[in-house]
Design a protein that fits this description.
- This protein has helices at residues 14-17, 52-56, 62-68, 79-85, 103-106, 133-138, 150-153, 219-223, 235-251, 263-273; strands at residues 2-13, 25-37, 41-45, 71-72, 93-97, 116-118, 162-164, 173-176, 184-187, 196-200, 208-210, 256-258.
- By secondary structure, the protein is an alpha+beta fold.
- It has a single domain, classed as Ribonuclease Z/Hydroxyacylglutathione hydrolase-like (Metallo-beta-lactamase, Chain A, 4-Layer Sandwich).
- The strands form two sheets. The protein has a six-stranded mixed β-sheet. A six-stranded mixed β-sheet has the order 7-8-9-10-11-12, covered by helices on one side.
- A hairpin with an 8-residue loop joins strand 9 and strand 10 (196-200).
- The longest helix has 17 residues, at 235-251.
- 44% of the residues are buried.
- Bound molecules: zinc ion.
- Zinc ion (ZN) binds next to helix 5.
- The site of zinc ion (ZN) has 6 residues, from helix 5.
- This is Lactamase.
- InterPro entries: MBL_superfamily_lactonases (IPR051013), Metallo-B-lactamas (IPR001279), RibonucZ/Hydroxyglut_hydro (IPR036866).
Length: 275
């Protein structure tokens, strides 16, 4: 069973998100996928915002991040509260796959102290505790949102069997989360070096591909409307992934590609999987 939850949102200028967008503020929801597998237990893809985001970004320079992208997330919006509504306790969450470590994807992480954590290669810099606050803030990494035992709880992608996704190109292989081909973790480097997506072939009409922040809006791969150049960190790899998503969209129009902050994509995907 898969459910798509939204844990808080921020606002951002639409024009920054996609060329062709208006100079107006739009809501940017934070997607969390809840997977309840008969053998593998409860797994989350990202943890969204949580109220602690406000305190973790209260001091300088992290405050800059919170000021640029004003966040709304009350206690009832957290993934923790939404799991409680489903009679799920924090200890039920066995594994958390993080698309990347930006604050809007990890703010709920500290609520799940028993879960193993999957992050992509190069995503957690070895010196993240020691490097300057400015450097962390420049990478949208907020140390107070990461667990003290982060490294001990990491589950390497190498421990998950490599399988063919059948998606072709850069997305041809994925790491099998449950050992039954029902959920494959795919690599989508660009927005960040270790960006991870999740391919759920049995969900939706032609499957569901959660792509984190590989793109922010579906018009990136349907109409080539990319974010401002300055917001495409590793431009070459970013654009290579967008080209792959555009190819997939053209070849499989019923495959639902879901960027974490695209309201229209989330609504459409929820129509298939519930939540
Ligand atoms: Zn994000």
């Amino acid at each position: 069973m898969t459910e798509l939850l939204v844990a808080g949102h921020c606002v951002q200028l639409e024009r920054f998100v996609r060329r062709g967008g208006a100079w107006r503020s739009i809501e940017f929801p934070s997607l969390v996928a809840l997977l309840d597998h008969p053998d593998g237990g409860v797994v989350l893809y990202d943890t969204g915002y949580a109220p602690r985001f406000h305190t973790a970004t209260a001091r300088w320079p992290y405050q800059l991040y919170a000021r640029l992208l004003p966040v709304t997330c009350g206690p009832a919006d957290s993934v923790l509260a939404q799991l409680a509504e489903r009679d799920l306790a924090p200890g039920d969450v066995r594994l958390i796959v993080l698309s990347h470590l930006h604050g809007d994807h990890v703010a709920g992480l500290l609520d799940f102290t028993d879960a193993r954590i999957v992050v992509g290669p190069g995503e957690l810099p070895p010196d993240w505790r020691k490097r300057s606050a400015w450097r962390n803030a420049a990478h949208a990494l907020v140390p107070d949102l990461l667990p003290a035992d982060a490294e001990q709880r990491l589950l390497s992608l190498d421990e998950l069997a490599l399988r063919s996704t059948g998606l072709g190109g850069l997305l041809e292989v994925g790491h099998d989360l449950f050992g039954d081909d029902s959920a494959l973790v795919v690599r989508l480097p660009g927005h960040t070096p270790g960006q991870l997506g999740l391919w759920l072939p049995a969900e939706g009409s032609d499957g569901l591909l959660l792509v984190g922040d590989a793109v922010w809006h579906r018009r990136a791969f349907t109409h080539g409307e990319l974010p401002l150049r300055v917001l495409r960190a590793d431009r070459e790899r970013y654009e290579a992934i967008v080209a792959e998503l555009a190819r997939l969209h053209a070849e499989h129009p019923h495959l639902l590609i879901v960027p974490s902050h695209c309201t229209a994509s989330i609504a459409e995907a929820r129509g298939y999987v519930g939540g």
